[in-house]
Amino acid sequence: MDVEDRESPTEVVSDRCGLLSVLLDTDEDSDEDAEGQEPFEDEDEALPPDLQWLEELYDDDHGDVDGDGDLAVAAVSGKKRRNAETARMFKLRRNLDQLDCFHRQKELDVLNARKELESCGQNIKSLMEHRDDLEKEMERQRAADDRRVGDRSVVYFRV
Question: Quick one: where's region Disordered (predicted)?
């Protein structure tokens, strides 16, 4: 696999299963931003786009009448309560499906990384064997050169 064929982690955008813009930062990006970086102070910063549903769910739970955190309890009448429970159930199922898909995607990424790591390991092993063979050949050539030099010195000594 050529280096040009692979996508860099910052170019990877996942829209599979409803996930939006899962971007990974590289060390190069953090080195460039490190000089002008300020300490993290804002704890209420917005969630990444792929986790907007979590904020919506939080707002739904905390925006109810009773304040007990359950959207279904906030509905006053039985029909409204059932509708709210059903809506919440569908929202939770959708979010669970998104998380399952995200998990499967990450598992595939891990498997691909393991395959690539194994391939690199085999390549390193092959290169090390080749290096050992070259070192042995160099030793043989040195020994042969030393014998020739020794033979020549004997010939010169006799002359």
Answer: 24-48
Each residue of 71-105: b (16+ CB within 10 Å) or e? bbebbeeeeeeeebeeebeeeeeebeebeeebeee
Q: Which helix (H) or strand (E) holds 112?
A: helix 78-158
C-alpha of 27 from chain center = 13
- Please tell me the pTM assigned to this model: 0.41
Helix (H) or strand (E) holding 34: helix 27-34
The answer to whether the beta carbons of residues 19 and 101 sit under 8 Å apart is yes
Q: Which residue has the tokens 């059932």?
A: 82
The per-residue pLDDT for range 105-120, each reduced to its tens digit, is 999 999 999 999 999 9
Phi and psi torsions of 113, nearest 5°: -65, -40
CA 92 to chain centroid, in Å, comes to: 26
Which DSSP helix (H) or strand (E) runs through 86?
helix 78-158
pLDDT at 93: 95
Q: How far apart are CA 157 and CA 137, in angstroms?
A: 30
